[in-house]
Amino acid sequence: MKKLILSVFVAAFAFTFQSCRESTGEKTEEAIEAIGEDIEDNVEHAGEKIEEGADKVKEEVDKEIHETDDVNGEEANDDL
Fold first, then answer.
1. Of 28, 33, 37, 79, which residue has the fewest beta carbons closer than 10 angstroms?
2. Do 67 and 59 meet the contact criterion of CB atoms below 8 Å apart?
3. How far is CA 45 from CA 42, 68, 69, in A?
């Protein structure tokens, strides 16, 4: 009788640990997926900011080339 009870107890104990490992694995997988989604979102956001910055630089360069004749706030001198 003791062996039967001990066997049932050991089996239940082993099943409990197996269940914990599965739920831990599932939680880990969910966390990894969430991290991946966060990384993807942040990369997209960073790309948008880089594009915005590049557009601003282009606008400033175009403005400087086409709209002004001064160099560092002074009138350009073509007489060299």
1. 79
2. no
3. 5, 34, 37
Q: Are 32 and 38 in contact (CB under 8 A)?
A: no
Structural contact between residues 76 and 69, judged by C-beta atoms closer than 8 angstroms: yes
CB atoms within 10 A of CB 30: 10
CA distance 25 to 28: 5
CA dihedral 39, 41, 43, 46 (to 10 degrees): -130
pTM: 0.50
pLDDT digits (tens, 9 = 90+) for 19-47: 666 777 788 889 999 999 999 999 999 99
